[in-house]
Amino acid sequence: MPSLAKQDVDPLAAIQRLPDPAQLDLAAAPAHRERLRQLRALLHSFEPSGHELAELCGVAALHPDPWVRREVLLALPQWRAIGGDEIAEAVAWAIHDTDDFVAFAAITLTGELRLRALLPQLLMIVGRASERLRRQAGKPVGMGHALVLRAITDVAGTSDPDELAKIERTLFAGDHPFPSNFPAPGTARERTARAADRNDLVRVSRGR
C-alpha cells in the first residue's frame, strides 16, 4: 500500500486503513513516511465534529503506531476552540508516552499552549523545578529534563526559582503533597512495563 487512497478526505477513515505497525520493516519505511505526510495534509484541512475530535484525541493517546500518535497529537491544537479540555487530556496522556519522540512533542505542546492544568504532570517528571533551576541534580537528565523545565517555565510565565516554588506549594498543598521520592529510570523494557501498569511482569535474563 504505497499511499493513502486518493478519495480519502476523512483522516479517521485513512487511519483505519494504515498497515499494522508490527508488519512494517525497514523496506516499508519510505512508503509509510509518504502515508504519514498525506495524513498530515488531511489533518490540516479537516474540520471535525465534537465526536470526531474525541476520536482523534483517542488516536493521539492510544494508536499502536507512535508516528501516527505524533502526527495526530501535533494536529490537535488547531481545534482547541471546539474541544480544549479533550485536547488537554490527550496531551497529558502523551506526556507519558513510552516513545520519547511522542512524549517530547507533548511536553513541547504543553509549553506552547500554556496548559497550566498540566503543570503537575510535568512536575511529576522532574520534581521541584525551582530546585532544578538552582542547579540541583534530578531525574531524568539530558534532553527530556531540559524540555520539561522549559515547558514548566513557559506555562508558569517565569523562570524565577522563588516564583516557581510558590506555584509548587500551591499545586501540591493539603491533600496533594509533592512527591519526595522518584524511582530510578530503569531500562526501556522496565519503563514500558510500568507505564502499562503491568506489575505482574517478570524480567527474564536473555538466553544464548
* Secondary structure category: mainly alpha
Proportion of residues in helical segments:
55-70%
Number of domains: 2
Evaluate the radius of gyration.
19 Å
Mean pLDDT: 82
Oligomer: single chain
Strand content: under 5%
> How many DSSP-defined strands?
0
Number of helices: 11
Q: What summary fits the major beta sheet? A: none
The separation of the N and C termini measures: 37 Å
Order of SSEs, N→C? HHHHHHHHHHH
Provide the low-confidence segments as ranges: 191-208
Shape: elongated
Summed up:
This protein is mainly α and 208 residues long.
Model description:
The protein is mainly α and 208 residues long. It folds into two domains: 7-97, no CATH class; 114-174. The chain has helices at residues 11-16, 29-45, 50-62, 66-75, 80-95, 100-112, 119-126, 129-132, 143-156, 161-171, 188-195.
Entry keywords:
single chain, 208 residues, mainly alpha, 2 domains, 0% strand, elongated
Topology of helices and strands:
Layout (H helix, E strand, L loop, with lengths): L10 H6 L12 H17 L4 H13 L3 H10 L4 H16 L4 H13 L6 H8 L2 H4 L10 H14 L4 H11 L16 H8 L13
